[in-house]
Structure formats: structure tokens, C-alpha cells
User: Fold this.
Amino acid sequence: MESTPALELRGVSKRFPLRGGGDFAALEDVSLEVRPGEIVALLGPNGAGKTTSMQLALGLLDADAGEARLFGGDPELLATRRRIGYAPDAPLFPKELTGLEVLTLHGEVIGLHRREAKARASRFAAEVGIAEPARRRIATYSRGQQQRLGVALSLLGDPDLLLLDEPTAGLDPAGVAAMRELLVGLRARGAAVLLNSHLLSEVERVCDRVLFLKGGRLLRSHEMRARGLRAEIRLANAPELAARAPELVASGLDGNRLRLEVPGEEAVPLLVRKLVEAGAEIVEVRLAGADLEQLYLEIVEGRA
Assistant:
């Protein structure tokens, strides 16, 4: 992994004036970084400072203190901006245009020839799952389709750094799965991703680190474990199974629930088959994201 962070905030603070006087601290002395080939999530309640952090990093807001650096340099440099993609929450587009027209126009703005801009527009519309809607006027789009269009727009320049603000908002399960594959692909080619999301199960599955924010302060940076999943299996005969096949359940049995690490979804059917062959009476099977949820509640909400 490269030594120079793709994105870095150093002691950044930002306050906004209040209408009745005084001000509001959106960020207080926050330092963070995202390195190439890394997916980092910002987690926290509404108003924690997640979007403000992204906007300060991009130079869309000026910090009151501290500094932002992208690829080790000034975020305002044109050469730096060409390496960045940004998808804001709830993007706005001209409703009379089609998705492909918006993508093609932005492709030309970043310097692509029209033929290449049109080709990339079609490519990224398909990658985010709006190949057919992209041919229609944006006035007909759902919120999820507009969100996907915003992500497609952020990808046009093959960015080395991508900032995504609630990219899964309004998406159906297929859209969430497509977003997961997209993020994994970006990491595989060495891009850095800063993600703001409330969807903890997806964050747990794809992110390398999570940063917990609350009230404008960075509470903790947490390294995620190896990107496996945890299967939670509810059993009707847990005591009998523990006695009959202790090698399968001893390490993960908690009452009538069996919790086991699995490398991926594809490993779950084999695990279930082994349990059934050992005499398990399975009531429910699900992939769990409860580890990160519990950590969030402990760190952000102060719940033990």
C-alpha cells in the first residue's frame, strides 16, 4: 500500500453561525486519513460531521483550523481534482435530460471526446444498474435511481479517490449488492474510498476501517477484522447437538444460537449441510452484522 494517503485531514475544525447568535461546532480538531487500496467508512448519527468532513476534504468548505490534503498536496490543484470522484447525498440533476445525456455532458466537461464520453456514460450506467433508466428523462427517476446516477457520475474519470455520501440511500437489495461489488472492484484496482453510510451490515462486509464520529469529534478509528461474515444459526436442539458434534459448535454456541465466522455467503450452504448431517434441527439462518452494530452502540451511544 502506498505511503502517501489519498486523503488526509489534519486537526480540522469547522463552525457554522447560528441564526439566533453564536455558532455550532460541526467538526472539532478531527484528523483522519484514507490510503490507496483502502475503503474507510464514516459512522455516526445525523449531524456528527460526516458530510462536513467530506466537503472540507474536497475544498467545498474552508476549514477554520487545520488543513486538508489530497495525495499529499493541495486539494484545489486541477491535476488533483482530476483524480477524484464525489457522489453527494441526494444529488440534483436537470430533470428534462436523460441520465445518459447528463453523464455524456460531464464526460465532455472533464475532457473526454464525445465518442469516449458516450461510451463511458453507457458503461458506468450499466455498472451501477441503470442501463435502461439512463435512457429516460431524469424526471421519471426514483430516489434510488438518482443516487445510482450520482455514483455513475463520480466514476466517469476512473478516480483514484472516491468519496461517497450515503450511496445506498433509496436502493433496493439488488442495488445494494451492486454497490458492494463496485466498491470491492475499486479497492482491487488500488483506489481509495471514503464512505458515509448508515447501512452497518454493508460497511462491515466491505470496509477496512471505520471511523466513529459524534458531535463533530472523532471518537475512535477501528480496524475491521478479515472481511469474513458471521453466520447466526438458531437451533431447536442446541444441547443435543453440542453433545453429539462438539467440534462443530463448541466455539460458537450461545444458548440456542450458533455464531460462526464464514469467509463468504457461498460457504453458508456447506456449513448448514454439515450441521444437518450431524443432527442439527435448524430454525433460522442469517448472515449477521451485529458485531459492528454493537460496537457502534457502545462507542457512539454509550451503551454497554
Remarks:
- The chain has a mean pLDDT of 89.
- The longest strand covers residues 23-34.
- Residues 173-188 form the longest helix (16 residues).
